[in-house]
Task: inverse folding
């Protein structure tokens, strides 16, 4: 009989990117929900790792340092797959989760330093993109001060910070309305930013001693068989089969396909904060199917 766990959550965000809570609050929320193995995966930044390690040690849970890297689309969406999951449109980017389980807090690690240097242009690319989005919203009759948006971020600035500013200015009632009406993928206020392709990101992750898992594949509109082919060809190590947006049937389909293709799985709530109506943890997964580096 396979052994199951609900104590792993490898996908969460803090105020270092687009999360609502600081790192310590995220860690406490994880621990209070029974999570024993927790990864912080802020967008395109590793700024929260030291805080995460300290918080996890204080709470008696295991910390896995991680990151969510925004990549170019690796395979065009298939209309039938979008319809199958009731998706109006695919994401304009693919997201790659990376984990570095051998990282030691406070220690000098040249591989991680090199990885940080590689990340820099992708982080700094968010600033001109945000300025362009604010300019575009101004053209649409909703002037937004880009400096005020960037002041809301303690790490990587992103669209949730812009959505917060739009709410404060009274242009929309909620952040969800901002995304669904103005700044979501392909909408009038949306501007793309510079992204690596999947192979480039995987190469850098592996060079730094990390492992890679494709985040929330449901959002990309690619059939599972084709998805796993792309991941294998790109050198990706796993797929986030268990994500809060996935049905049980889709989780099982992904898990079987990953196993058949020699890939592991990861599990993540994609926790951004309580105001998003999200709760971390409590997502069952078979332990032996998880990537060995992140098993409890």
Result:
């Amino acid at each position: 009989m396979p052994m199951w766990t609900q104590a792993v959550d490898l996908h969460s965000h803090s105020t270092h990117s687009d999360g609502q809570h600081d790192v310590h609050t995220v860690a406490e929320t994880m621990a209070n929900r029974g999570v024993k193995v927790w990864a912080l995966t802020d967008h395109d930044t590793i700024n929260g790792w030291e805080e995460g390690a300290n918080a996890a040690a204080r709470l008696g849970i295991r910390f896995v340092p991680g990151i969510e890297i925004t990549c170019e689309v690796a395979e065009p969406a298939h209309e039938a797959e979008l319809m199958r999951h009731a998706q109006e449109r695919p994401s304009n980017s693919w997201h790659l989760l990376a984990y570095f389980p051998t990282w030691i807090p406070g220690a000098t690690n040249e591989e991680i330093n090199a990885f940080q240097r590689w990340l820099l242009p992708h982080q700094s690319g968010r600033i001109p993109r945000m300025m362009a989005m604010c300019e575009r919203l101004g053209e649409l009759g909703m002037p937004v001060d880009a400096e005020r948006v960037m002041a809301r971020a303690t790490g990587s600035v992103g669209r949730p910070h812009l959505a917060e500013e739009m709410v404060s200015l009274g242009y929309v009632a909620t952040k969800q309305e901002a995304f669904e009406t103005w700044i979501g993928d392909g909408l009038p206020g949306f501007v793309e930013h510079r992204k690596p392709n999947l192979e480039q990101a995987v190469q850098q992750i592996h060079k730094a001693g990390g492992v890679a898992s494709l985040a929330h594949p449901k959002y990309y509109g690619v059939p599972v068989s084709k998805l796993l082919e792309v991941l294998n060809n790109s050198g990706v190590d796993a797929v986030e089969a268990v994500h809060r947006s996935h049905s049980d049937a889709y989780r099982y389909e992904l898990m079987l396909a990953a196993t058949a293709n020699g890939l592991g799985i990861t599990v993540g709530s994609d926790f951004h904060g309580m105001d998003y109506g999200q709760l971390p943890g409590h997502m069952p997964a078979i332990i032996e199917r998880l990537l060995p580096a992140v098993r409890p």
In short: The longest strand covers residues 62-71. The radius of gyration is 18 Å. The CA atoms of residues 20 and 273 lie 5 Å apart.
